Each structure stands twice: as C-alpha cells, then as structure tokens.
Amino acid sequence: MADNAVEESSSNGRRKKVVLKETRLGISHKKDEDFGKWYSEVLVNSEMIEYYDISGCYIIRDWAMMIWDIMKEFFEKEIGDMGVDKCMFPLFVSKSVLNKEKNHIAGFEPEVAWVTKAGKSDLEVELAIRPTSETVIYPYFSKWIRNRHDLPKKINQWCNVVRWEFSNPMPFIRSREFYWQEGHTAFATKEEADVEVLEILEMYRRIFQDFILKLVHVFIDYIMLQAFIPNTGRGIQGATSHCLGQNFSKKEFFDIKFHVEIEEDGKTRTDHVHVWQNSWAYSTRSIGVMVMVHGDEKGLVLPPKVAKWQVVVIPVPYRDANTQEIFDACSATVKTLRKAGIRAEVEKRDHYTPGWKYSYWEMKGVPLRIEIGPKDLANNQVRAVRRDNGVEMDSSVVSLVEQVLNALHLGSLQKSGHIGAGLTKSSSKPV
Hints:
Elements: E1 4-8, E2 16-21, H1 35-45, E3 49-51, E4 58-60, H2 62-81, E5 85-86, E6 92-94, H3 95-98, H4 102-105, E7 113-118, E8 121-129, H5 134-144, E9 153-162, E10 177-187, H6 190-212, E11 218-220, E12 224-229, E13 234-245, E14 257-264, E15 267-274, E16 276-283, H7 285-294, E17 311-315, H8 323-339, E18 344-346, H9 354-363, E19 368-372, H10 374-379, E20 381-386, E21 392-396, H11 400-408, H12 411-416
Parallel strand pairs: 5-9, 17-18, 17-19
Antiparallel strand pairs: 1-2, 3-4, 6-8, 7-8, 9-10, 10-16, 11-12, 12-13, 13-16, 14-15, 19-20, 20-21
C-alpha cells in the first residue's frame, strides 16, 4: 500500500507530502472526527488516486477510472439517442479570443493558467489552458449554423479543464485539473432549449441516484443538481444544465444566427434569427461525492453499478484441506458469475491470510465478498458477505447467481445486458 499521506499547499505551487503514519492496511482516521484526513486516506489506500508532485493535480487510478467509464458509457448512449454529436476542441485558447467574452470569463479569470513560452522562446500570443469552452466553441457555431435545417446543433466533448485554484486542494472535489463532459447546444426557439435543460437535469439525476448515490437524496433546481454531504452539512454542486438564452448568440463576435424566409404581402424576404443556447456538464467531482457519502471507517463502499469488481471470491483453505480443490471452486464460481454478466474476480494471492484479504477488499469497497472453504465445498455452498451492511448469507451453488443479483440489487441491470456487460470478459489479472 502507498504511504498514508495528505497534501498541503506551498507558496511555489508544488505539493508537500505529509506522512501521517507508518504504512499499514486499513484506515487510521475516523470519518466523524477528521473528515478531511479520512477522505484523503480512503482515496489513497483504496487505490483510487495517487498524489502527484504538483499541488492540486492527481493521478486517477484504474479503480476510479472504471467508475468514470461506466457512467460515461451510460451518458453517451443517452445523449446519443438525443442526437448529440461527439467532438473535441483544442486545449488552448488565445488571449484575444478568451477576452472577447470578459463577463463570462470573469469568474474564472483568477484561475486561468497561461502558456507564455515554447522552450526558451516567448510566444507571440499568450495561450490560456481552457477553464471552460464557450469562447472556443461558439465562433464555430456561427460558422456551422446558417439556416433552419442546421438546427438543432448539439455537441458534447469529454475533456480536461484547468482552473488554478488557490484554496486548499481536495482530490476530485477541488482540483486544479479535472475531467468532465461539456455539452453545448443551439436551438431555433426558447421552448426547445427549455425542454432540453430539464431533460439533461433528469439524466444527471439518474446518474447520481441510480449509479453512485443509491438511497441518498439529491437536490435539483432549474439549472443545478447538488448532493448533500452529512459529515460537512454542506451541499456540493454535482452537475449543471444552463439555458444561456441568446446571451452569446447576439454578441457581435459570435453572432450565431440562422436565416428564415418570411412571406409578407405576397413577397418573400429573408430575415435572421439568433439561436437559443444551452450548456451542461458534470465532472469527476461526482466520484468524490460518492466516496464522501458512502465511505465508512473501513474505506470505500462502492455502489454495485459502478464497481470494477462487483464480487470478489476469496479461497479460505484450512489445515489439511485440499487447497487446489478450493482454488478450482473459486475459479469456477467466478466463471459462472461472469457468464451471468456480473463483474467478478478471484483473489489468488497465497502470501496473505484470508483475514488480510477481507480487510483489503473491504477497503477497496467491493460490494460483495464470497468465501469458499472446505466446509462450503462439502455442503455445495458459498458464504457471501455484503460490504455496505456486513450481512452474511450462505448460498447454494445452484442458486448462486440469483442470490448474488438480488444481494447487489442488479437483477434488471444485468438481465438487460446494459452497463458493464462488455466488462465481464475482462482478462485483467487480480490485484
């Protein structure tokens, strides 16, 4: 495991690593006593992130990226059905373009990171690293939208943005570089734009409540979704869906409009109408919210829909038991679960005790642990333990799949073959 560390800011913009305790298995801080240190420790020890040598920037590891990818898979399908196209705009914004919309960028201005050199040479034009993309994208909306047939225009990109915050950084929640999707759309009428705002908010609600904040309330107003963090007593903005009106399209330097043919007095004339625009986004902050709400004194508690491994199968050899037979039973169990669409893995390491393995996978938040020992083999059963509430149950091998799906509340999900179905054939080795 990595050192148990937290991050402190320093004047030179680099991270100073403070080691709290000697490396150990488990979580040393209490969630109710020191929430910030507990949160940092959980993220590092569960292998969600690794600290980087630049303050406010973090390495997002596979255990967290899988969560992001599963949500992304769901969201891309939904917005694809809405007719949203994929795209990718450049990371850099020229100073002149960024300054064209001073009112919009005013809130980000203190946090804009600038590139002023290439090697040892000064750049002729200072380049900003995008804090958001309205000023990057909308000049091209003006180019691409000419008539009514070009509408609605709907695009989305998955990208990173940089906002050089000077407040205390916190992984996922308040970082200088983070990842998000940002959707930008244009419509002929306000009514169309208003409908989409609510459609996107509903989609965000589904992401938060159905995937990562099971049984936890989220609060939705007309433009924003917030999640309440009980330990801090505060809400955290999770996603936004804004109707921008014609604020951008009527600006001279964007001038996004389409022409229409109008019949008057038996004559046809051409008029121009400015589009109505929306923007919407959610980010990797959602992962941090999930950890804060569900994590406990043992570490992560992952909702089953977003866990890389929904089930871990652990062999429990005892004295003179046939170890190979137990390992074979574990492998067969994983094969059966994967065939049913359940993301399962076997714990094959033989240099740790079963108790150590239980603690390790609890810390990583795997929703369900299955134990197989000699008595289980004799009785043609397995012992299953839920991560969220610690409830144990013995399950017959014959009805194992059904009981696992019920325990994970995944019946309809897995039978539909939707989220994560393609992951069940993973060739990844055990950690």
